[in-house]
Amino acid sequence: MTWYCDVAPGHPVHGPYHDEEYGFPLVDDRALFERLSLEIFQAGLSWLIVLKKRPALVAAFDGFDPAVVAAYGEAEVERLMNDAGIIRNRRKIAATIENARLLLMIQASHGSLAAWIAAHHPLAKPQWIKLFKQSFVFMGGEVVGEFLMSIGYLPNAHREDCPAFARIKALNPPWMAVGTAFYG
């Protein structure tokens, strides 16, 4: 098995994400929406492409502010489709906008996306996938699994001997509360 820990450290693009973000608990709704959207944009592409285009995606999607993105209309879709700095896939752009709208409904019912996720923890990966498919669009197993692993809700973001693992362990991510045996 090849781990991200085997290839990312020291890499100019992968390294900072691996060392400072991947697997670390995340509770800010704007950051959660960004991460979920990036996972959607990654579908069918390499994570390196997404990380390289991340600054342009953040700028193009108004910092991934869910309230702003939820209000996008056809003019914004066309603006995004003409932005050579981002991943120009109409289905992924439409999914990001629709997910912003769905996220606002979750915020209205649960206070925040973070609270909604926490309210469903713990779930095994198949149940997470089912929940996300019922609640958002463009949700496949890889998108959901990587999103949840990247925010500390599923284990195995890092090998135990990886320096990032020790820093994450000190933060007691949600998956750690139930242990890896729960996730099978």
Taking pLDDT < 50 over at least 5 consecutive residues as the criterion, the unreliable ranges are none
Radius of gyration computed on alpha carbons = 16 Å
SS field, number of helical segments? 12
CATH fold type: Endonuclease III, domain 1
Q: Provide the CATH superfamily.
A: Hypothetical protein, domain 2
What is the mean pLDDT? 96
| Helix-strand pattern | HHHHHHHHHHHH
Largest sheet: none
The helix content, as a percent range, equals 55-70%
Reading off the top of the CATH hierarchy, the class is best stated as Mainly Alpha
Cα distance, first to last residue?
A: 17 Å
Structural class: mainly alpha
Protein name: DNA-3-methyladenine glycosylase
GO molecular function, one term: metal ion binding
Pfam families: Adenine_glyco
Keywords: Metal-binding, Zinc
Describe, in plain words, how this protein is organized in 3D.
The structure is a single chain. This protein is mainly α. The protein has one domain (19-183): Hypothetical protein, domain 2 (Endonuclease III, domain 1), CATH 1.10.340. 62% of the residues lie in helices and 0% in strands. GO terms for molecular function: DNA-3-methyladenine glycosylase activity; metal ion binding. It comes from Paramagnetospirillum kuznetsovii. This is DNA-3-methyladenine glycosylase.
Please name the defining characteristics of this protein.
single chain, 184 residues, mainly alpha, Endonuclease III, domain 1, 62% helix, globular
How would you summarize the topology of this molecule?
Layout: H1 4-7, H2 14-20, H3 29-42, H4 47-60, H5 66-70, H6 74-81, H7 90-110, H8 113-120, H9 125-135, H10 141-150, H11 163-170, H12 174-178
Helix pairs in contact: 3-4, 3-7, 3-10
